[in-house]
Specification:
Helix content: 40-55%
Shape: globular
Oligomer: single chain
Low-confidence stretches: 1-104
Length: about 475
């Protein structure tokens, strides 16, 4: 899951630096104006010939910093330096004579597609944690919609660009993602028209309000920043201890949400936060969970509930410790090892010394046949996570007809019906995890009934063919005239 990383920096003393209380937008604009005047020095003829081009450049610089200008909050010198760096890069780009903003405005005109033409939608997708799987699943259904001409704009964590080297930004995923996404979109708009933008998650949209004002936009999220704050400790995520920083972060997020035509959240937990914490009207928010291909994730289990031999438990989680992997190993060692085997799919090293029947699988990506084969062979899915929002791996387990044992964190109670398609136990509790799992181990009939309910739950709530088409309909409605 991607979280809303915070701007954790100490406040500075304005008396020590007169620029501390300047808004970075105005500071960058002052720098730009000075540089502009230096560049224009020369003969009167040269100044007259270049005046129009530089006026356009100055307009572009103003557009570049307009997002920050709306927030008169004191910021550290490092932030001012960041905006100066971006202004310099912009000036260099515009020496070629290209006008980014003019191109964006031209390509954004007449946003509604003419009758019979495809909707040109840019999908700006965060590529961290489970969002990689979400993107892959979404792409399948977008490709099947003949009315959509998709431009995919993946915003990856590991990219060797200048944002990875910039002070402050390089250590803050939210800043990197937002700035990187905006640069990618602007690059595309120089040659392509887009009727709409779809941002997932909100961290890719925080500095795109200028674009969102010209192009109808939808912002999708697996959790609000304040949702994430409430479960952030296992992610090593902590709200800033400085109230002005939190106020700035929340104001910027609220501004992003207000700029969107529509918001999509994966669960009611997220919608409640949008309404309560950010003042968003409920009618602007659509609750649409992600989905999976239920035809592929379908493994009939008729008659196999009472087969002899140890039961096969399955755990899938890239972040082994945050997903409760150590708790699972403790429960397995205490109570489950004599009657079960355990398959662990993760990207982290796992110490299984002294444990019989445990197999660790590395390098299995989303929807890989080897991963799906493990689901097909499993009897129970065990996922004692410490922090999650609405994990796609649980959707895969439900679709596979597996009863699920998990914890009551995030929105997992909206995903798993306790006592119907599995059990919800407290986090950090190996004894409770073992007890719930043993109930399924010892009762083949209960296991089979819960497995059937699990599949029904997936059919009803997590059908990718239904859910992703709903997402596309929200996007299309935003660019239809009078919507």
């Amino acid at each position: 899951m991607a979280g809303a990383a915070l701007l954790n920096f100490p406040p500075r003393d304005p008396a020590q630096n007169p620029f501390e209380t300047l808004r970075p937008g105005k500071f960058a604009l002052k720098w730009y104006t000075a540089r502009h005047n230096e560049t224009r020095r020369g003969t009167p003829t040269r100044r007259r010939a270049t005046g129009t081009r530089f006026a356009s450049q100055e307009s572009n610089a103003r557009d570049l910093v307009s997002d920050a200008d709306a927030h008169p909050v004191a910021r550290p010198t490092r932030t001012v330096d960041l905006w100066m760096s971006e202004a310099r890069a912009t000036v260099l780009r515009f020496r070629t004579g290209a006008s980014c903003v003019a191109a964006e405005d031209a390509l954004a005109n007449d946003a509604a597609p003419t009758q019979g033409m495809a909707y040109k939608i840019g999908f700006v997708m965060e590529q961290t944690l489970g969002h990689v799987t979400h993107t892959q699943n979404f792409q399948q259904w977008v490709a099947e919609d003949a009315d959509v001409e998709a431009t995919w704009i993946p915003v990856s964590f590991d990219v060797a660009d200048h944002w990875r080297l910039a002070p402050l930004v390089r250590r803050n995923w939210t800043l990197r993602a937002s700035l990187r996404a905006r640069a990618q979109i602007r690059g595309i708009l120089r040659s392509h028209k887009l009727d709409a933008l779809f941002f997932h998650t909100q961290v890719t949209a925080l500095f795109a309000q200028g674009l969102m004002a010209r192009i109808p936009s939808v912002v999708s999220m697996d959790a609000t920043p304040l949702n994430f704050d409430s479960i952030g400790v296992p992610y090593d995520h902590f709200p800033s201890i400085y109230p002005p920083v939190e106020a700035f972060k929340n104001a910027l997020t609220r501004r992003t949400f207000n700029a969107a035509r529509k918001l999509i959240t994966w669960h009611e937990w997220g919608k409640e936060s949008l309404v309560r914490d950010y003042g968003i009207g409920g009618g602007k928010v659509a609750v649409i969970p992600p989905g999976i291909n239920l035809e592929r994730w379908n493994f009939p289990r008729d008659g196999d509930a009472a087969l002899p031999g140890p039961l096969r438990l399955l755990f899938v989680g890239g972040d082994f410790r945050r997903k409760g992997g150590e708790v699972l190993l403790a429960a397995f060692r205490q109570s489950l090892m004599t009657s079960c085997t355990l398959d662990i799919v993760t990207r982290e090293p796992v110490n299984i010394a002294g444990l019989d029947g445990v197999r660790v699988h590395h390098g299995l990506g989303p929807n890989m046949p080897e991963l799906m084969a493990l689901y097909a062979r499993a009897d129970v899915f065990v996922f004692p996570t410490f922090a999650d929002t609405l994990p796609i791996v649980i959707m895969e387990a439900l679709a596979s007809g597996l009863p699920v044992v998990t914890t009551n964190v995030g929105a997992l109670s909206e995903e798993v019906e306790d006592g119907v398609c599995g059990f919800i136990v407290p986090a950090h509790d190996p004894a409770a995890l073992a007890e719930a799992t043993l109930r399924l181990v010892r009762n083949p009939t209960l296991r089979q009934q819960m497995g059937a309910h699990a599949r029904n739950r997936a059919d009803a709530k997590f059908n990718g063919a239904v859910n992703y088409r709903r997402v596309l309909e929200v996007c299309k409605a935003c660019v239809t005239p009078n919507n």
